[in-house]
Amino acid sequence: MAKQRTQFKCTNCDHTSAKWLGSCPSCGKWNTFEESKIEEKSASHKAKVEGLDGAEKPQNLNEVETSENSRFLSNIKEFDRVLGGGFLHGAYILIGGEPGVGKSTLTLQIAKSNPDLKILYCAGEESAGQIKQRAKRLGVTSDKLLVYNETQINKIIDEVQRIEPDLLIVDSIQTVYRTELQSMPGSIQQVKECAALFQQLAKKKNITTIVIGHVTKEGDIAGPRVLEHMVDT
To answer: If you classify domain 69-230 with CATH, what class do you get?
Structure first.
């Protein structure tokens, strides 16, 4: 039988407490604690994603293999400058902004600049038809751009491992969820868990990954602040 216990979590910084607090001791925000129930399962029932639970072994730095062509460009001058000269293979990148500012359009412009890359676009907010219309307006003609309307992360990871894309785009992290968790998509727990799995996928499979995240009216990424510290850029 699964056991349940209650905790209180700050919606701004993800700080947890056994009791409700008026002010968060971590970020200083007021009235941000919400009660949540945590289901505790035995170790044998913990969710695993196939292909990502293997242990890594220490490597001698001199024996680590690298590619001479380890970067590719977006051909958007300021964006490439922020990235330190373009995308590194296996990089984990967060693009944040308010709804409607052009985050999805930016990722399609990146796809347009790299027609030779195999790109998997995981769409959780728009249909494939809507994405095609925007791509057509932008002049995106790559036959290596694949659109996948899916928000269940286990299915996304399975498809990524099958296709082995050069670039993975997740639009957006707030729509992705794990069925093993009881919380809704976009909740602190879902965003944190899914972001961690995408990070693991990017590093183990050496797949450049762009995750789109929405920004709240206060200017913070919607979800736990830990998301901002998981990404490379």
So the answer is: alpha beta
